[in-house]
Amino acid sequence: MRLSILDQSPISANQTAKEALNESMRLAQTGEALGYTRYWIAEHHDLPGLACSAPEVMLSYIGANTKKIRIGSGAVLLPHYKPYKIAEVFNMLATLFPNRIDIGIGRAPGGSAEATNALSDKFLQNVWRFPSLINDLLNFLDNTFPEEHEFSKVSASPQPEIAPVPWLLGTSEKSALLAAKNGIPYTFGHFMSDNDGSFIVQQYLDHFKPREQTQKPQIIVTVSAICAETTEKAEEIALSSLIWSIQKDKGDAHQGVPSIQDAKNYKLTIRESEKIESMKRNMVIGNPQELKRKLIELKNTYKADEMMINTITYSPGDRIQSYRCIAKEILS
């Protein structure tokens, strides 16, 4: 089973943003050493506790400090930008780091309404135009605009020897069908969805239309997972992330991911306790053997080619150890 990493570059309560970003680079290096297939970093805007607003900047830094692991965005939020600029940026990354670059594409705002307005004047219109934006981006990457198109003579330079690979990220049937229609790989966000994911992924498989004759559908499923030597330890470590989610919902997450002790001391209402139990059902928490069993179950349920793991902890060491435990159990 192939495993990969999705990093949201969380900032813990005792960290600066710079420290969090350096931990992201360390995580990519560790993932490479452990045999993870790819490392993707997310895009967020003005969200307390999340450090990365520009994946393309971090990918340059991470690419220069790693050697072979595939790196990409998870996701670049296309409605904020012109497809041509995204094609230029990722073609440049693919030129610098040959055969290593993925473009994970999303359509969420990635921040508050105010941050969205500060980024772009026509975000909602571009959400409606998302299929067209995807089509333009793919044409810029492949140089496949028809001759009569206004952009047919425009090149997204530099032109890499091996083009970056586009992936569409989503949690809905609409996103799955859009990926299938365009013949590109699909990533389903299990960790952020209450939808029937297996049905959605099956829609992608059933409707896939390859862009090239030899092309086959590809599926990554992203899960939130925390692994430790014992189930009890994993549950304890996971509490920081769970309490932080509660704090974010209340607009009280400005201090970053809380320590395990602060998470234990947090006074939960009955409703918040119920919400935590609900969130845990959408996570994979446990010892290495439990993680392996649950990840294999999810892979089989989704018919996935690869499982991508998102892990948020207070301690960077606990996060590294979680990925290490999973890799030792599955990749060794």
From TrEMBL:
Its EC number is 1.14.13.107. SUPFAM superfamilies: Bacterial luciferase-like (SSF51679). The keyword Transport does not apply. Residues 1-301 form the Luciferase-like domain. It is an enzyme of class 1 (oxidoreductase). One of its GO terms (cellular component) is cytosol. It comes from the Bacteria. Keywords: Oxidoreductase. CDD domains: Flavin_utilizing_monoxygenases. Gene3D superfamilies: Luciferase-like domain. NCBIfam families: oxido_grp_1. To bacterial alkanal monooxygenase alpha and beta chains. This is Luciferase family oxidoreductase, group 1. The gene is limB.
